[in-house]
Design goal:
The radius of gyration is 19 Å and the shape is globular. It has 365 residues and is α/β, with parallel strands linked by helices. It has twelve helices and 14 strands.
Amino acid sequence: MNHSPLFTALKGNNISLKNRLAVAPMTRVTASEDGCASEKMKRYYASLARGGFGLIITEGIYIDRAWSQTYAFQAGLTSTAQVNAWREITDAVHRQEAAIFAQIQHAGALSQGNHYVTETVAPSAIRPKGEQMPFYRGEGQYPLPRELSDSEIEEIITNFADAAARAVHEAGFDGVEIHGANGYLLDQFFTEYSNLRTDRWGGDTAGRMTIGLEVIKAVRARLGADVPVGIRISQGKVNDFVHKWGKGVEDARVIFSLLEKSGVDFIHVTEYEAWEPAFADDERSLVELAHQYAPSLTLIANGALHDPGRAEEVMAMGADLIALGRGALANHDWPERVKADQPLNEFDRDILSPIADIKERELNQ
């Protein structure tokens, strides 16, 4: 496996990494109640870096003290104390010669544990599908959100930029991933059934992309041209796992073409199985569609790629980096094991129950 493309260096689009292996963002709710990253989190991220991953993308980090927090015991980037706690983690990861990007997130209607406010907000006043997730301390239906005003949307865009600046300039992160996936606020704007607006923030696919593009523009302006900035995109959501874009390949063309011109350096696509066709009437995967319509951008692929052969297959489809979730949880040293042709541990779902926090046994594997 030493000659696998997984272990070649990556240089381009402001990204320089020792290999093509990343840790995917995974919600672990192990911060303090007031949003400071913990010592256990530092050990967790340092362990993954020590295991040979070239890049670590953090769990989603909330961006303000208003409506962005998604889960209780989620970490934020809104205060000096929160920034300093993340600085300890970035320093620990850098000591292991890995890079670390902050994933910045706004919950929107899917908030189920906000330390600061009780109400939720969304593009439109529509109750989210599904129910809150008990392994993130949620219970019952999601609350009915309030529709955001134009000025509140502008404030959220500014808050994304503020959080990005704190992440890079104060907390020591190497880059930023904007969370535009999995049903959270930016994805709620992308999604036809959760965005019924008729103003500049709604309408057709391109119109519903407006807030995401404005967030990218604001973050890029704040960080400058040389800091890696990207966005995570998905079809499925934590509360609507099987969702597909309504116009199929045409939506993919619009979304990825707009992102290529948006100012990002990378797109991170996630599917349940990254190699499978994205739509029933087309054989191409979402990775292949992203590569076709945004060929100049670095492409990160995520989705059941813990088997090295599958990971190489998806790289052949156009992915530049492979992001592992369950595979990394089961094997903090996945890169070192695969390089040495050693067996991999199977994923233990009990790690995520009863609460999906970091377990001590993970840190001792």
